[in-house]
What does this fold into?
Amino acid sequence: MSDVTPLARIAALTALALSGAVAAFATMAPEIPAPAPDAALVEQIALRTGDTLLPAPAEFLREERFQRGDTLAGMLGRLGVSDAEVRKLARTPVLRRLRPGHTVAGEVNAEGELLRLSYLAARGTLTTVERAGDAFRTMEGAAPLRAEIVMRSGTIRSSLFAAADASSVPDSVAVQIADIFAGDVDFHRELREGDRFAVVYEQYFLHGRPVHAGRVLAAEFVNQGRRFRALHYALAQGGGGYYAPDGSNLRKAFLRSPLEYSRISSGFGMRRHPFQRTWRAHSGVDFAAPTGTRVRAAGDGVVEFAGPRAGYGNMVAVRHRGQYSTVYAHLSRFAPGAQRGARVAQGDVVGFVGQTGWATGPHLHYEFRVAGQSRNPYAIAMPAGEPVPPADVGAFRRHAEPLLARLELLAANPIALLE
It folds into this structure.
């Protein structure tokens, strides 16, 4: 080591001493166990890597729509409910009220046991089935619905319903539009390509999901260049309806059509009789519609006759104020309460479309009579309802202003808006 410098010799000796000390400490020190892995970290890693370290979820939340032709067992099976549970639930009365279109939310555990199930029934009723030990309890109450205002517009290409579908407007809103303007627009014969509509209506939501559309608040329809506007207003003394911006009533004393929406299959006047094969005067208007379609009273009145009558089949006759009366024939059945002497309001259902009497297919034969003589309901001027009362005019104008502003916005920007 004569060639090694003193400084290098010192460094070598120091390194040798340190290595010996480390070795000695390793033999004397007790064994220290490795730290246990953090459970949460393992779960996170397993979740990311797709390993099977995580336990199965305790509960499953699913939604299914009850379809046409569906069965309770089939729908529950899609929710993940076990066969044993399905047999128990089959005896639950409220589940037998499920109808096509109902959306069912279910909470099921890993064993297929139902913990909770709910669906929104008619008239905003929330129906719930909940586990209570080995049995189930049912609860029904008003659903916590939240209303929002929706603004939409559209252009007619073929029909009102086709235009409504293209603009994501619900059918129930399209029906209201047709009803509101029925006194001014013949939706059976006067629609033209390029006609436009704008509508402001209520949309109800349950837990952020759209449930159903509500009332039309304001609407505009442009038919062959003629512009009509309607605003809904509730009178201070009760009642109300749809009024033009000047306060005149859009509601006529009579509906031109007793069906919400259909096709005229035979008009008023001379025609070849389908049974007698001779040319005879047709004293009414025929509307082609599926069996079971609701037939509405054209105006306020009293049922004068309800029953079978020769070639008319099942028929309802209503006497209205003054010299007016209406007839509804070939009905499949009568509405509950549509019996002689009963009072009906405009729009009340008096029966359902059928094929009774002299009828070659399901349709409604409708007659509009003045002093006992049949008249063409599409060729006479219908009297209007009462306007906004003078005492309500100021409140009506204040109510109308923001609604008219919304219609103006839609006219300038034909888009769909949700507030």
Q: What stands out?
A: The two ends are 93 Å apart (CA to CA). The mean pLDDT is 81.
